[in-house]
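agent> fetching stored inputs for the zinc ion docking request
agent> found them:
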Amino acid sequence: MLRLFFSMMLCWLPLSAIEHIEHYEIFTKQYQENDTLFLVSRRFELSGVTFYLTTNTQTLQTKVLSFDASKFMPLDENFSKTPFAKQLSDATALQGKGGATHGTTQNDKAIYLTMDLCPSAKKGYESEFIEHLTKQNGKTPIAIALSSAWREHHTKEFEALLKNPLLEITWVNHTHTHFYDPKLVERQNFMLHVNTDVKAEILGVEKTLLEEGITPSVFFRFPGLIADAKLMRELRETYFLIPLGANAWIAKNEPIKTGSIILIHGNKNEPQGIAMMEKKLPDVVKNYKFHAIKEAFVQ
Ligand SMILES: [Zn+2]
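agent> prediction call returned; pasting tokens
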């Protein structure tokens, strides 16, 4: 029953009250199904059953599945030729910008909205903005970059986002603790801090999401959009996550253009960005179309 359930559902049901994921780890293989190559990137156990986090290398859709591991093969050159591997390679070459800043597909008038949930002492989230957005635009695709540290102190807010029927959410990994020290210079701050445990930062959020019944996506956002070549190499070779930068960070007054990855903060730490986006909304809704973030990379 459990096996059938996980195979059929894109999302899990909340399981946190019942049981916890065990032995969550990096596990790298590929397998072929019909004409499509799938990447297997994580493995874990739940109630004695082994599950795998998989990515369709054509569509970038992730799924949690439990199946016979005998069909798994080591990654080979066929993986390197997939659309996923190409996008991963291109985005991780952009360390100065924190990753891809705009869509690489030719979607007419497409824009991609991303909203960061960095840790915050502020209660609530930008719920009024979300309400105005969905009132004007209807059901809206949005990529939400979640830190476990925000989730931990915003249970109700997280639930409200999760259950909003007018949001089509792609959950993006924004690290477990999202370390930041205002006294440190950029090159020693965020994930570049000397004590950063990269594995714990990345896998911690994925486990948080999975235990909420959510399948993590293939997308990652560096805290502060600050990265270096070493971290990018780890995303590419170990974690298989596409880093998302932005070329329309609204609070920085960067203009929205076709293909823009738009950045706002949903944690109430950047109200000026929200106010500016509110102002732009009627024009944006008229002239552009919000798309799911994966459509920035594959058609
Ligand atoms: Zn952040």
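agent> quick read of the result: Confidence is low (pLDDT under 50) at residues 1-10, 13-18.
agent> awaiting further instructions
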